[in-house]
Structures are given as C-alpha cells and as structure tokens.
Amino acid sequence: MPDARGWITRCSGTPLPAMPVEVNAQGLRDRARTYEKPADTARVVVLGGNVAEGLGVPEPAILARLLEDRADRRLGRRLDVVNAAVGGWSLDNDLLWFRTEGRRYAPDLVLVLLNPVVELLSIFPPPGVRVPAKPTFSLVDGQLVVHPATEPAASGEAARDGFLSHVALYRAALRIPTRVGAPVGWIEPEQGDAPAERVRGEMLARALLAALRDESAAAGARLVAVVTPAGYGGAAGDVLGAEEAMRTIVGDLGIPAIDLGPAFRWFREQTGRSGYVPGTARWNRDGHFIACQGIWTFLGNERLVPAGVVAAMAPGGGKLLEPRRFPEKLWRLRQSLFGVFVECGLVAVCVLWAGALLPPAGRDWLLVGVSLGMVAFLATPGFALAALVFALALYVAVEALPRDAVGTAVVVLLVALVVVPVMWAPEWAPRYEAAPHEYVAAATGFALLRFWAHAWDRRHGAPRRPLRQYLAAMFFFPTFLNGPIESTEDFVARRPGGALAPETPAELGRFVRTAAIGLARVAGGVLVAAVAMILLNKRTPDVFASGGAAVSRPRLWLWLFELGVGFYAAVGGLSEVAIGLGAMTGSRVGRNFDAPWAARGPREFWTRWYVSLARWLGRYVYRPLGGGRRHATLNVFVVFLASAAWFAWTAVKFLGAAVYPPWAWTGFLAWAVVNASVVALARRRRLRLPRARAVRAALTLAVLAVASIPFFLPPWSTLADCGRIALRLAWVR
C-alpha cells in the first residue's frame, strides 16, 4: 500500500519483532526515490518475497541497505539498491512487477531471491494448497500466458467508526490500522496428482526465470539468482527436493546463482541461531547480514559488481559526509532506541507530574512503576520481570542474610548478571530484536555497577534504605539505560523529598524554571548525540582497514581527535538527556564530563573524562585495593583493566560472542595497558610536560588520543592496524 507508515507486530497471524515500517510512493518498503537513475550511480533491484522484505528488521539492517554500504562512495560510483521484495510475492509477481515498474529504474543488476518452497508452491499450487488470489501464468505451447486475478472475497471485518477511531492512541492500543488495503482473496485448493503438478510447477518456474533473465537483459541489466534455504525458520533439509530443483533450473538457464544454504547452516552450527524470525520464512537481522555477506562476496568473485562500483575496504567504510541530509536522518532517529527512549522519558515525566499529589512514599512507588514500565516497553516484559526479581533477590540477600553469607550471595548474583545476558538472554525473547536487544545490552552494564555499589555501600556502613527508594535508585528511568552511574546513596542525596510537590508559589516557580531548563537540556542532548551518530567518524572503518593510509596525515591527526569528540558527543549527549529528564522529575543527576580538554596531565584527564565511571572505579576498585597508599602502580593497572573488561563485556552483549570473540578484546586490553602506563609514568613524574597550562593541556590530549586508538578497534581489525596508524601519525610510514 503506497505511502503507508506505522508499526508491524504480526503478519498473517504470526508475531514479528515490533518495528516501524515506511512504504514509499511506489508501494515498496524502500526509500523515496525517482525512476530516473542519478548520475554517477549504479542501480541494483532486489526482487523476492518474505525473506528480503525486512518486516521485523530495522530499515538500515535490511539486505538492500547493507549492500549499499558495501560500496565505497568516495572512490567509485554510488550504489543504489531498490528493495522491491514484497511479502507473499513469488516469481510470477516478480516478473509482472519488473515488466511494469522494475525496468523503469534502469537497473544495472537484478537480484532475484528464490525460496524454493515458496516459489514452487505459489506459482503453481499443488493439490490442497491455498494461496492468495493474484494474476497467474500458464504455459500454452511453450509460451507464458497471463491470467487476471480473481475477485477478492469480502473482508468480513466491519469498519470501526466513531470519535475514538480517530484517536491514534486508541487505534494503537486496539491494533486498529489507520488505513487498510484491498481485502485479500484466495484461490481455493483443487484436487489433482501431486507429482504431476509439481513437474508442471517446475516447468513454469523455468519459463518465468527465463523470461525474467531475457527482460532484464533487454533493460540493460544482468540477472543473478540467490537461492535461499528452503526450510521455514532456517530449518535444515531439502524440502520435497525443492532446493535441488531450483539449483538445476537456474543452472540450466545459465543464470549466475549463489546458494545461501551452506552459509546459513554454518551460522546455525556456530551460534545456534537460524537467521530467521521463529516460525516464519522471514530473515531476522542475522539473516540479512549473512545474505549480504554471501551475495557481495559472490558478486565480487564472479565480477558481477556493476562497473565503476568500488568495494569498501571494511563494512561501513567509504561513506560520504552529507550535512544536507542531517535533518532527514535526525527525523529518522525518532524510530531508533535513542529516539523512543527520549519520547518515553517525556511521557514518564508527565505521568510523574500527574502523581504530584500523592504522599512521598506514593510518589516513590509511582517512580518505580513508571521506570519498570519503561523497561518493559523498551526491552521486553520478561526482562522487566527478571530485572525486578533480581533486584529483590539482591535486596533480600543484603538486608536479611547473615553477614557471613552476604558476600557469597552477592557474588553469585552479580556473576549471574554478567553471564546471563551473554549466554541465554537472547534466547528468552526470540521475537524481540534490534532496540530491545540493544537496550538489554546497554542497561545491564550500568545495572551491574549500581547493584555492586549498593551491596558494597551497605556492607561498609551505609544506612538501610526503604525498598521503594532502593528500587527507584536501581531503575531510575533517566539513567537506567546510559547512565550517568549513580549509587543508591547518590540518588537519595540528589532527590529532595518535596521536589515534585511544591507547597508554595515560589517553590512552584522554581520547579517550573528547573523543568524548563531540563527540557532544554534534553533537546540539546538529542542534538549533540545526533551530530555524533550522523556526522562524525565516517572515515573510521577506512582508517583502520588501511592502517591510516586511506587519508592524508593532516586528516589522520584530525581523525584522531574526531574519535574523542565523537565519543564525548555521543556519551555527553545521552548524559544531557538523562540530566534533563532527571531535572524534570526533581532529581539532580551528576555529569559525565568535566571539561576534559582543560586537564594538565593524564591523571587529571581521567578524573574529568567519563566522570561517573571514573568515580565508581575509584570508589569501588582503586581505594579498596589500597589507592595511592600501597601498590599504587598495580592498582592503576587493575582499574584500567577492570574498565576494559566492562567495555568488552558490553561489546559482546551488543555483537554476540560469535561476532566479537575473545581475540577481538585485545583492543580494549591494549588501551588499558597503554593508558595505565601513561598514568603510572606521570604519577611517578617520569612523564614530564611543559609548565605552560595551554601547552600541557594540548600535549595531554595528544598523548592520550594516540593511546586511545585501540579502544575504537573494530572486531575485524588487529593491533597491527593500530601500530600502522601510530607510525603514520609519526611520519614514519
């Protein structure tokens, strides 16, 4: 349905990962584009059905967008990939669409994705199989003949009218669509001889593919067939010999073809994941990535990449800085985890304001409920329940167990919090992808530090807090996802009891001004974080892949500081959002950065950079080990190694152990060792800097910028790449 927008949660009754979907004016889940091909652009059209359409997958992660990202836009022609895959389509639909629409895009290459079971069943359904009504083909004297679609049956669903049907929130709650297309008709199954019908289906598939091959060539394009695994949900096995039949057909027709079955089976053996949304024939994010990797490699090996297109040196490389598209991309961020978090946070603030008349205890419990509700919405209800059970278990262990048993119980619980998100959590909610996965990966990292801090503080004399304050501190929604990191004591100290219930006009005025400033900080934080996400560090994949040779030396030095600025803007922007939301709820959230550019030495820099993490490490790691009183140098190394372990653990949760194996952690390890050495040398006064304040600050930033290169090392690069970059910075190579 052209120009449709909304969220998809199920298809044909089967649940899908909830994901926003935008359909363009041509009725495709694709970007808005014209039929005319832009200058200096190669165009690829992707045909297919459910597998490549991408419902349940974020738009940037579908096959078409991933293929576009494989081309280096700086060194060659731009690659424009049209996602013409539509759920429920098969070869006959593909051919009809290409005749009327596809050729108008002037493609250089046509990729047709073939699910053997779907193609053979849908184009010529065997006895007993019910398929949607659509135009069909038959072979008459060896020629393809088109038969019009049958009239669709009546929908049977009465239209919902009335005032409430115009309220978006009401429609969303009851899953009432804003617009619906024509009702779907069905071709009722007929009786016949199954083997004979299957042979006729294979003959028809052969004729359709031959016609698509010839019409692609007439349009100036080359047809490439992509055979996907035949089993639904990635199940192994050659269903009814369909895979072998399809391979034989494309081979006989001389169509270049890649069989993705081996790649998907290898992935399943290595990770235990299928690459499909469970119970469907639709790829999830894994499936789209596997398909892109296999297709792009095949096109390169067979020299089928359109002329003038240059392969990027690394995934995500070769991108252009496009400031003019910043407003468009900023608007698209509203559907990302970051955007939805901000939107939900503002709604949560309004709910808390509505509860201002409650007593203090009631306001605390309302904050707990709102925070857990956000966890359930942004992650999954199951994760929210598991997080609550864990928090209660830790509270009981700390407050109720004998002192000798508390330490063991807390260690067991915290180890479980480290292991479970990596090993088993993704399997608990296989229908939830993308944003929920990212939310769990980020939130559990900060939750570990908060729970650790609470247990440590209580063991070392902190007062016992009521359960409502403890839960509010652990799940405080502005900081739960991205920090800043706060202990229970920090949270209680920074949240005045009557903040949300001003008793005098003067107090109300102060609160309104504070809330207005908080809203401005939220807006500023969104803008700063968006700049980091959209405009900065576009050359990073190229720089690491080439050892720095992809850019000039002056640009390499600029890139070096761009890394730090990008991290500062991303984390700082998220922190500003948390501070602003906190202010609107009556809490003073601490900062994450304290003018790190003004630091006059490495030690001072690390007290100003990522302040909440630095304070946590100092309070719960450095000082318990003896601080600067004994084994100071060793303690510095332990602190940096603990920080590296925390970042590596977070990366594993985001990417998975298969994508980010232990050998890929060497970047964080090298970053920890190098920076700990710099701090230790400075502490022992063996790293001497000039006395001029500005010069000291500049040299501090330069030294630590070079020392932090391994921190940003992609999993496909090695420490040798960091070494080559450092040598190029020093004008040695």
What can you tell me about this protein's structure?
The protein is an alpha/beta fold. It has helices spanning 50-53, 63-69, 91-100, 116-123, 168-174, 194-218, 242-252, 261-271, 285-301, 326-332, 337-354, 360-378, 381-400, 403-423, 425-428, 435-459, 467-475, 477-480, 488-493, 505-534, 540-546, 553-584, 602-608, 611-622, 632-655, 666-683, 693-707, 719-729, and strands spanning 5-11, 14-22, 41-48, 78-85, 109-114, 131-132, 136-140, 143-147, 186-187, 222-227, 257-259. A five-stranded parallel sheet has the order 4-3-5-10-11, sandwiched between helices. The longest helix is centred in the last third of the chain and has 32 residues, at 553-584. The radius of gyration is 29 Å and the shape is globular.
Number of helices: 28
CATH top level of the largest domain is: Alpha Beta
CATH architecture of the largest domain: 3-Layer(aba) Sandwich
The residue-averaged pLDDT reads 86
SSE arrangement:
Layout: E1 5-11, E2 14-22, E3 41-48, H1 50-53, H2 63-69, E4 78-85, H3 91-100, E5 109-114, H4 116-123, E6 131-132, E7 136-140, E8 143-147, H5 168-174, E9 186-187, H6 194-218, E10 222-227, H7 242-252, E11 257-259, H8 261-271, H9 285-301, H10 326-332, H11 337-354, H12 360-378, H13 381-400, H14 403-423, H15 425-428, H16 435-459, H17 467-475, H18 477-480, H19 488-493, H20 505-534, H21 540-546, H22 553-584, H23 602-608, H24 611-622, H25 632-655, H26 666-683, H27 693-707, H28 719-729
Parallel strand pairs: 3-4, 3-5, 5-10, 10-11
Antiparallel strand pairs: 1-2, 6-9, 7-8
